[in-house]
Amino acid sequence: MNKLGKIIVGLSGGVDSSVAALMLLEQGYEVEALFMKNWDEDDKDGHCTAEQDLSDAQKVADKLGIKLHSINFSADYWEDVFEHFLQEHKKGRTPNPDVLCNQKIKFKVFLEHALSLGADKIATGHYARITQDNGEYQLRAGLDDSKDQSYFLHLLNQNQLSKSLFPLGEISKTDVRALAKKHDLITADKKDSTGICFIGERNFSQFLQTYLPKQPGNIVDEHGNFIKHHQGLAFYTIGQRKGLEIGGGFSDSPEPWFVADKHIDTNELLVVQGNHPLLYHQTLATSNLHWIGTPPNLPLDCQAKIRYRQASQNCQVISYGDSLKVIFELPQRAITPGQSVVFYQADICLGGAIIEQRNYE
To answer: Annotation-wise, does 338 bind a ligand?
Structure first.
């Protein structure tokens, strides 16, 4: 029996998970892999690449000499992630399915299945780190700032962290590509996947319209002047520019238009031009609070992100009913209800919550 233990790597068919498996082998672990299929819709336009990804994952597993398991978690994904995703959009909010997918699928259903196969832990190709302090697990940002994915992992709990490994947390994406090339892995130059977790890159509005009915309404400016019609508030998000298709002739300014708000009661989409003050807010209220470790004392001075890849912003977190209110040092652009606000102290991810509303005081 391997003294370091048996690890099952979530092998996606991409370069990151391929190198995660490689690194664990080099570190001396007993390694197996598992390919998850989580989306079962027929894909006639080539956006879902599960068949190609499985083929690439098998080639990587063969190259590394490890066993590849394959399983379909589509029913779990639909029930635990996608139905919530649709319901949030129906309410005019903008959910983050990747956050829920990590909590419910990768670090719950996959973890449970891997343990049933005899694994001691699972591993993924996330750029994040796990440490321990006084017996408590901490989630830390990956050392490669440009790839850090701790934002998407903030709903993990102590048990999930205790059973997980992130081999890429200490290295850069450049290092990952170099290792893949050095070991002649077929994924070395494969393009990174983007888009909705497990669903892939699509025209987002068109994709949603296959599941949600159109509810046309008016697009208006800050003064209530009609500009054009929209197809439904569900198909837009705060701060959006692309896809509005508002050309010249609607104002004297050449600056681009952005979504500033959704008026659910009147089914109106409010748009503004340029760096407009209506795009900025300094406070937000939350729900569904989750702390990764022992809840900190409030009020708390820390940093927060309201979206992935945003630089951490100084803020104060205070109690607000059953959840929190976040007061930023500087006004934040395009705070979006339904998205996650994630809290940090330096490189330690403390947890996060769902943004419920932007306050105007």
So the answer is: no
Q: What is the pLDDT of residues 29-48, one digit of tens each?
A: 999 999 998 887 555 445 55
**6 falls in which pLDDT band (50, 70, 90)?**
very high
The pLDDT score that the predictor gives to residue 104 is 95
> What is the per-residue pLDDT for 44?
45
Is 1 known as a binding-site position? no
Least trusted range by pLDDT, from 79-88, 154-163, 192-201: 192-201
Is 11 flagged in the annotation as binding? yes
For the entire predicted model, the pTM comes to: 0.93
Task: Just list the catalytic residues.
Answer: 101, 197
Query: Rounded to an integer, what distance in angstroms lies between the CA atom of residue 179 and that of residue 266?
Result: 55
Domains by residue range for the chain, with CATH: 6-182 (3.40.50.620), 213-274 (2.30.30.280), 280-359 (2.40.30.10)
Residue 301 is labelled as binding a ligand: no
Q: What is the pLDDT of residue 193?
A: 75
15 is in an annotated binding site: yes
pLDDT tens readout for residues 257-276: 999 999 999 999 999 999 99
